[in-house]
Amino acid sequence: MKSSSILSIIAASFLSFSQYAKAEDTDYVTCGSAIKLQHTEAGNKYFLHSNGARVNSRGSSGQVLITASPDSNKMSALWLVGEGHGQPPCKVGSKIAYGTKIRLSHVETTCNLHSHTMRSPLSGQQEVTGFGEKGEGDKGDDWLVQPKRNSKEHYWRIGDEVFLRHAETNMYLGSSEQAKFTQRNCGHNCPVMNHLEVFGRGNADSFCYWKTTTGVYLYK
């Protein structure tokens, strides 16, 4: 799904998409929804975010910087749920099953949540960036939604903690208050002051828990 249609999809969500949905279906994240992802290890205080700034540390990719932001009230924390790279378009309003390969496209910048084998600027783990434009990118933009252990759910339920595993490298989307951008490590004019670094992590542990509550959800 291309991000050029994001605004029309979000506008449509306030019209007739959800009013015909079955009550039990409205508990789930769906294709075409615009969601905010909270990082739960840090007490739900931080949200997956981008403001378009570039990674500029030595040896970095120079791609768009992705952080976990303490400010949840901006469009910069909204991500559009779509199908994986090169896959048939997912049906708007259809529930996302666990194990599904998805892309998360940033509403404001239109880049995709992306990862590759370069090192992240603060913790030296795997770099996570924004890549591509208007929903176009590559297979490095694909993520697999996975439930926490012992979950009996088959679909991504709103409010449940999940892992997002990078399909190409098998690293998990993570963040930590131990890797915070400050004046000391980012400079006086840091564009992401007090944000947390977002990285790819080899272990599916508490640093990799995310959940979605706030968002614009579309239903069939």
The count of strands amounts to: 13
**What is the rounded Rg?**
16 Å
Shape: globular
Instruction: Give the ordered list of helices and strands.
Output: HEEEEEEEEEEEHEE
Question: What composes the largest sheet?
Answer: 13 strands, antiparallel
Helical stretch tally: 2
Give the DSSP E fraction (strand runs of 2 or more residues).
Answer: 25-35%
In the predicted model, the low-confidence regions spanning at least 5 consecutive residues are 11-20
Helix/strand structural class: mainly beta
Distance between the termini: 17 Å
- The mean pLDDT is 87
Tell me roughly what share of residues is in helical segments.
under 10%
Reconstruct the topology from this structure:
Layout: H1 6-13, E1 34-39, E2 46-49, E3 64-65, E4 67-69, E5 79-83, E6 101-106, E7 112-119, E8 126-131, E9 143-147, E10 162-166, E11 172-180, H2 183-186, E12 196-201, E13 210-216
Structure description:
With 220 residues, the protein is mainly β. It is built from two helices and 13 strands. Strand 7 (112-119) and strand 8 form a beta hairpin.
What are the key terms here?
13 strands; 220 residues; 13-stranded antiparallel beta sheet; 2 helices; mainly beta; single chain
Short description:
It is built from two helices and 13 strands, in the order αβββββββββββαββ.
